[in-house]
Write a structure and sequence with these properties.
By secondary structure, the chain is mostly beta strands. The protein has helices spanning about 1-25, 110-115, and strands at about 35, 40-50, 55-60, 65-70, 75, 100-105, 115-125, 125-140, 145-155, 165-170, 175-180, 200-205, 225-230, 230-240, 245-250, 255-260, 295-300, 305-310, 325, 330-340, 340-350, 355-360, 370, 375-385. The N and C termini lie far apart (about 45 Å).
Length: about 375
């Protein structure tokens, strides 16, 4: 009577082991490569590794990826994962604290003009500020930047190393939107129109002021400003469903926000919000106030959002229309389900990856591409398992 029981128990154990092996695939180094999600099993492929605090990625022709590394280096990743030599001609960056080489995007006509835009923390006197540059990427065995021009420099009290913001989006009219942090110690400046701290600015590809910006002609206001009252925005994207600009910014202890950005609007930092200071002290007057915009979503406690994309591809049909952002503090990928402009649910994906996710983009192949934030950061490609 005992033999059948032992046989069944052993068979069950083998079945469980086989099932677990199928569901939690790992690399030879023990890294988990298969994860569950509302869209089914996901496969996580390491396309490239050994990147030093990668911050942003941009897709190039011939299935290659341009990656910025915070310490001041750009690399081109080949389809098989090989890393190019450092792109020459990148300006010196102030790579202290949260500063360094930050976002990079390709011009919407890159195939014709080879132009890229990138932002970085630039040393100025005893501190730093955010600068935006334009250049032509010259490809080849020794890639370099040509015709480099700094098209914008942030004006206002300098940073000692924190809250540079620094995401770039190019709209269909070619104008650039850029997020700018409030430098942490100067948070009240986010409410002043006399500087660029805690603002989203809108400029031309030459750095000029578009003629329909909201504060043109207002005395004491910087004409580049599009919106204000921001803290440290590290996520920016245009919603393809309605062409509206969306932004995600870091709160302090709690109060990370998802905002829909309107022309000339005030998003409240530090007057209103949902967090507290790192010391535990109160920061805000309240959570709302007339004339100040409310977020469409906020997190308490903070997840540390960075990077942002709206999914429109075919690989994940159930996720079409969702908003994705990386989580640095949370160490997972966030998916927000949308109904129009309302966030209806949140899904946390790749929680066992145990990596800070710095950037997330939808690739031309319909996959989700991520950067992990560490001294040995990785470029990851996320697809349905088996594809």
């Amino acid at each position: 009577m005992k033999r059948p029981v032992v046989w069944v128990t052993t068979s069950l154990a083998i079945a469980i082991l086989v099932t677990t092996t199928l569901l939690i695939a790992t690399t030879s180094r023990g890294e988990q490569t298969s994860f569950g999600s509302s869209a089914g099993r996901l496969e996580v492929q390491t396309v490239a590794s050994g990147l030093s605090y990668p911050w942003a990625l941009a897709f190039l022709p011939r299935d290659r990826v341009l990656v910025s590394e915070r310490r001041g280096r750009m690399r081109i990743v080949a389809p098989q994962g090989q890393l190019s030599p450092a792109v020459k001609g990148v300006p010196e960056v102030m790579a202290t604290g949260q500063g360094g080489l930050l976002d990079v995007v390709t011009d919407k006509d890159f195939a014709q003009n080879n132009t890229i835009y990138f932002c970085y923390s630039e040393r100025a006197g005893t501190g730093g500020r955010t600068a935006i540059a334009r250049a032509k990427l010259v490809d080849g065995a020794a890639p370099r930047l040509d015709e480099l021009k700094v098209i914008f420099r942030q004006e206002g009290p300098l940073s000692s190393g924190n809250h540079y913001g620094c995401r770039i989006v190019q709209a269909s009219d070619s104008y650039l939107f850029v997020t700018l942090g409030e430098h942490y110690s100067s948070r009240n400046e986010a409410q002043s129109l006399a500087n660029h701290l805690g603002k989203i600015v809108r400029i031309t590809t030459d750095g000029a002021v578009p003629p329909d910006n909201p504060f043109i002609g207002r005395e004491g206001a910087r004409p580049e400003i599009w919106s204000y009252g921001h803290r440290n925005p590290q996520s920016l994207a245009i919603n393809p469903a309605n062409n509206e600009l969306w932004e995600i910014e870091h709160g302090p202890r709690g109060g990370d926000e998802v905002n829909i950005i309107g022309k000339g609007k005030n998003y409240g930092w530090p007057v209103i919000g949902y967090g507290i200071d790192y010391s535990g002290a109160k920061i805000h007057e309240s959570t709302s106030k007339p004339g100040l915009e409310q977020p469409v979503k906020y997190w308490v406690p903070s997840v540390g959002p960075s990077g942002m994309t709206f999914y429109t591809g075919d690989l994940f049909p159930r996720w079409r229309g969702s908003l994705f952002t990386g989580a640095l503090a949370g160490q997972f990928l966030v998916r927000l389900q949308l109904n129009g402009n309302a966030v209806t649910s949140e899904e946390r994906i790749l929680q066992n990856l145990n990596e800070r996710i710095r950037d997330v983009r939808q690739g031309p192949d319909g996959a989700l591409w991520l950067l992990t934030d560490s001294s040995s950061g990785r470029l990851l490609r996320i697809t349905p398992a088996g594809k």
